[in-house]
Design a protein that fits this description.
By secondary structure, the chain is of the alpha+beta class. Helix content is 30%, strand content 22%. The protein is flat and about 55 Å long. The chain starts with a helix and ends in a 5-residue tail after the last helix.
């Protein structure tokens, strides 16, 4: 009797498995096959107040967002305002973590984005796969896009071509200093900071670096910090008092209070 009972139980549980639902039903909850429907919708559905204002064209300028220091949480906002944004992978490095089962290796990606017209972003992402790390770094770089101020070395003739003043950035032991240069000098920098300066649209600049610049991650972070500080120095042409007015969240509060009918 016990032998027949054990045979019956084994036949009932075969293919079903124990624990986390392994067996013919697939792995995971619900029993749905892995992969699912891979045809994802490409339409942007905003999930933040700022995203709703941008998609419905209540905010038509990226500088308007910077003026009120509104945090950008969706990368599609940057894609909406800067469709010509280019991205490039600066470095991919493996990082390891010691666990009880051994070493866990993941990949860290550094990506820079810019349009060559005064907008620059740097993103860092770590993931178990290279492609996933690069995608995450691109999104992080778009969310960190900042305006870059350009200026002149001497007489104000023609378009701005260099940085307006000397700026410095630091990360770890690496310190990077940017110095304005006369027109026609070019970007005098190493390979990594030169890529950032070109993506920012700066044509002429001198650079000076101190520290362990072989650590490329800290090198590009220090350069990005220095470039983003160009708006931090208040020159006399920025002394004009501009009224701030209402925040876009207050100005369009009636629109934001509305909920879409399902």
């Amino acid at each position: 009797f016990f032998f027949l009972l054990s045979q019956y139980i084994m036949s009932e549980t075969r293919g079903r498995g124990f624990g986390r639902g392994r067996g013919s039903r697939g792995r995971g909850r619900g029993g749905a096959p892995r992969g699912g429907n891979k045809q994802e919708s490409t339409a942007w559905v905003p999930v933040t107040k700022l995203g709703r204002l941008v998609k419905d064209r209540y905010i038509t300028d990226l500088e308007h967002i910077y003026r009120y220091a509104l945090p950008i949480k969706e990368s599609q906002i940057i894609d909406h305002f800067l469709p010509t944004l280019k991205d490039e992978v600066v470095k991919i490095m493996p990082v390891q973590k010691q666990t009880t089962a051994g070493q866990r290796t993941r990949f860290k990606a550094f990506v820079v984005v810019g349009d060559g017209q005064g907008h620059l972003g740097l993103g860092v992402k770590c993931a178990s796969e290279v492609a996933t790390a690069i995608r995450g770094a691109i999104i992080a770089a778009k969310l960190s896009v900042v305006p870059i101020r350009k200026g002149y070395w001497g007489n104000k003739i023609g378009a701005p071509h260099t940085i307006p003043s000397k700026v410095t950035g630091k990360c770890g032991s690496v310190s990077v200093r940017l110095v304005p240069a006369p027109r026609g000098t070019g970007v005098v920098a190493a390979r990594a900071p030169k890529k950032l300066l070109q993506f920012a649209g700066i044509q002429d600049v001198y650079t000076s670096s101190v520290g362990h610049t072989k650590t490329l991650g800290n090198f590009v972070k220090a350069t990005f910090q220095a470039i983003s500080r160009t708006f931090g120095y208040l020159t006399p042409d920025l002394w004009a008092d501009l009224p701030l007015g209402e925040s876009p969240y207050q100005e369009f509060s009636e629109f934001l209070s509305q909920t879409k009918k399902r």
